[in-house]
Amino acid sequence: MELVILVPCCFFLVALIKFLYDYLWVPLRIQHMMNSQGIKGPPYRFIHGNSKEVARLEQEALSKRVALTDDIFPKVLPHFYTWINRYVIREEFCLYWNGARPELGISEPELIKEKLSDIGREFLGNGLLFIAGEKWAKHRKLANHAFHGESLKNMTPAIITSVETMLEKWKKGQEGREIEVLQEFRLFTSEVISRTAFGSSYLQGEKIFSMLQKLTIIMSRNLFKSRIPLIREDEAVNGEVNSFGNDFLGLLVNAYHDSDEKNRFSLEDLLAECKTFYFSGQETVNSLLSWIVLHLAIHGDWQEKARREVIDIFGNRNAHLEGVAKLKIMTMIINETLRLYVHRDPHFWGDDVHHFKPERFAEGIAKATNYTAAAFLPFGLGPRSCVGMTFAMIETKIVLSMILQRYTFTLSPTYVHSPIFVLSIRPQHEIQVILEPPHHNA
């Protein structure tokens, strides 16, 4: 009888010791070692780490308003702002706890550069953003092919068609009235991604991407798992396409059917890349366009400079790749917007770091950053830099050019400035601008 009681008690005791070792002794030991090296941060809290504090600080930040020239760091990353000011001795490091797992926040550009250049690190997930080694190289090679040279040229008509669809809607009753650009650009970027990925309209592509979002839950259901490659397989059998097409989906399905096992994509690879392409391409460009329009609506002088440049290069014609490459002022405006909503370290950008000043980039990015590459990272750095960077810049320049040709815009007095961090730095509230025809028709 005593033995029967003793055995489960021993198991319980061993489990308890293991639990306390993992969730108490190890974290406290790591914290002590890091603190002794001057690397500090919020103290470890048993089991949950700092997650409760993060949730509380983020909730408090959501209720706060900021002015356009205020520091947005306390608003978008309130926990890091609080910890750095309260605990940190060495400013380039901040130790914090995700449950019982220690994580290290770094802000020193050279350390960031080194980390982003380390392609041997293991990442979680299956998309291009989160894989490593040979698999990453295979996926990156295909993505490079999809977003460079002739492929980019072939995507331009899809971008222009999507802009025309958006502007046609604006023309029907929106002139002289407020328009909410965040939602407008969300629809626009979704259509661009759908057209360039699927060679189809937004409504057709939307069904597929909606399915992709649900696949994380229903991956075991063969009907949905196999539908994406079958879309192109059906078309090929019916003679509607040659091979599986040259758009992004076509390249992925070709890789799915590749006879060389080293180059072949699994179905999970294909789905992961579709999701990565859609969510990163839609969310980031949507936020960028919204912030640019906001600042051009406020800074009418820069809006007019950009408009004159667009008219000088394109006249009343639609934008084209050759002209897009000549848009120097617009490039300055885009870079300054990317800087404002990622990079606000006064050590690199000066005391006017919170002000919109596109002239910083008049002589290029290298000069603006004093040749510190890691001081400006809107698209990452090194081998893991954003493969769609050129595509995003072309898309942004085309849509801005076509808007500036047709409209002037001012900021609505109802706008409330409140940036938040959700995948990217995006507006918490709507961005309302008032559209008017341009004062001149060149």
Automatic annotation (TrEMBL):
<keyword id="KW-0560">Oxidoreductase</keyword>
<dbReference type="GO" id="GO:0016020">
    <property type="term" value="C:membrane"/>
</dbReference>
<dbReference type="InterPro" id="IPR050665">
    <property type="entry name" value="Cytochrome_P450_Monooxygen"/>
</dbReference>
<dbReference type="InterPro" id="IPR001128">
    <property type="entry name" value="Cyt_P450"/>
</dbReference>
<dbReference type="GO" id="GO:0004497">
    <property type="term" value="F:monooxygenase activity"/>
</dbReference>
<comment type="similarity">
    <text>Belongs to the cytochrome P450 family.</text>
</comment>
<keyword id="KW-0503">Monooxygenase</keyword>
<keyword id="KW-1133">Transmembrane helix</keyword>
<dbReference type="InterPro" id="IPR002401">
    <property type="entry name" value="Cyt_P450_E_grp-I"/>
</dbReference>
<keyword id="KW-0479">Metal-binding</keyword>
<dbReference type="Pfam" id="PF00067">
    <property type="entry name" value="p450"/>
</dbReference>
<keyword id="KW-0812">Transmembrane</keyword>
<keyword id="KW-0349">Heme</keyword>
<dbReference type="GO" id="GO:0016705">
    <property type="term" value="F:oxidoreductase activity, acting on paired donors, with incorporation or reduction of molecular oxygen"/>
</dbReference>
<keyword id="KW-0472">Membrane</keyword>
<protein>
    <recommendedName>
        <fullName>Cytochrome P450 CYP749A22-like</fullName>
    </recommendedName>
</protein>
<feature type="binding site" description="axial binding residue">
    <location>
        <position position="386"/>
    </location>
    <ligand>
        <name>heme</name>
    </ligand>
</feature>
<dbReference type="GO" id="GO:0020037">
    <property type="term" value="F:heme binding"/>
</dbReference>
<keyword id="KW-0408">Iron</keyword>
<dbReference type="GO" id="GO:0005506">
    <property type="term" value="F:iron ion binding"/>
</dbReference>
<dbReference type="InterPro" id="IPR017972">
    <property type="entry name" value="Cyt_P450_CS"/>
</dbReference>
<dbReference type="InterPro" id="IPR036396">
    <property type="entry name" value="Cyt_P450_sf"/>
</dbReference>
